[in-house]
Input
Amino acid sequence: MWMIRREQLLAMGGLRREAFEVRALAHVWRFFPEPCRSLGELGTRELVRRGIERARGHGFTSERDLCKYLNLVFAFGEDFGSRLPWAASILRLGGAPSRRMARLYERAVAREGKDRR
Amino acid sequence: MSGGGEASALQQSGESADQELSDQPPDSSSTTCESQHDWIEVQLVGEDGRGVPGQRLRVTLPDGSIREETLDAEGVAGFDGIASGTCTITFPDLDQDAWEPFEEQTSAAKPESGSAAPPAAAGTVEPVGQGDRVVGETDCVASIADETGHFWQTIWNDPANADLKAARQDPNLLLPGDRVTVPPLREGSAERPTGERHRFRRRGVPSRLTVRVLENGKPRAGEPYKLMADETVRSGVTGDDGSVSTFLSALARKVELRVGAGDALTVYDLSPKELRPLNDLAGAQQRLSNLGFECLEEKGRFGDTTRAAVTDFQKSRKLAETGELDAATLEALRKGYGS
Output
């Protein structure tokens, strides 16, 4: 029988987190190449990390919601959650995070082209 | 940040995230989370259909774990990444009779004014009741219920408050110094499935305020009004009988009503919760003054100004002009004022 200790589980979690960052980086380079080129590889990676931390601070935890939050960061700017009143008001809401993100994203698509920095 | 084509990039990147990424945290164990993909939301609304913020929500999830959250500005809280099944919902700071499943057709329960005959005459009234909660200047049963997590009827109909109820007859008209028994909260719960938003109603909150605006005894009908209570503003048009009826927090301290526009604009300073019982001299003076027979400068004292106001009121109602707050005068005051 295989025995997996807690430390090993934590290490596996860390690896999965890093793997997600790699996938998230590829995602933003694919859909937002222009700002990524402006930031460079290192700058893009740092913005992805900061974006993920900010997203977690708003209660988003799933890969899907974290990635969507990054989309908004790259589309509207890193501070969109405090700069744009509509985004700030939705982020302040309670409720299930995935529902909140769905609401945020729907509004963002409606606002695209209007609120970009 | 900007670049050509972000508009479609935003949609495409969102669709890509939906299709290619997991609804689990990146550092979670896939073996334990495969079934944890559901969600549940709860909304608590008041009698006016608006969200009730700040209330504590407790949900027992299908796996038996317990989560707590505070309702947001829209009265909503929820959880996702949970197992599918049935959740047990409770509001730990509310009594079991203070909330119920929301149904559109449910009518608002509101404290009604008492209809019993007024006492024989007005004079100095003593506080009654034996409870721990001492009534302050701006308290009524609805405000105490709002503060303590109860439905107002639970407090008003509690046997421990029977003597208070008999003496005051109207839950809106407590006397400062009265003592109210606030019963302990009884926890209620509701079983609801995941994957939905479930709505519940906070019973009796906010309260309904109804005012009739008269000028020289005639209703000010069909006029625009704006009612301001603390941070709440309600506007509309007065009814055919000059009435303004709106939901208002029982905890509101200052209420101002503006009726009409331009030269016809009149500002009324309403302090509905400061109204004393009718059989209290100050309560009778408040009603007289509000009906246009000003005598509040003698509040709590029966002097010449009050006697003149009573006589004028009796004359206007074709009563015997005794200058005394007798039973017939008090009954006319109750009818004229509405409580």
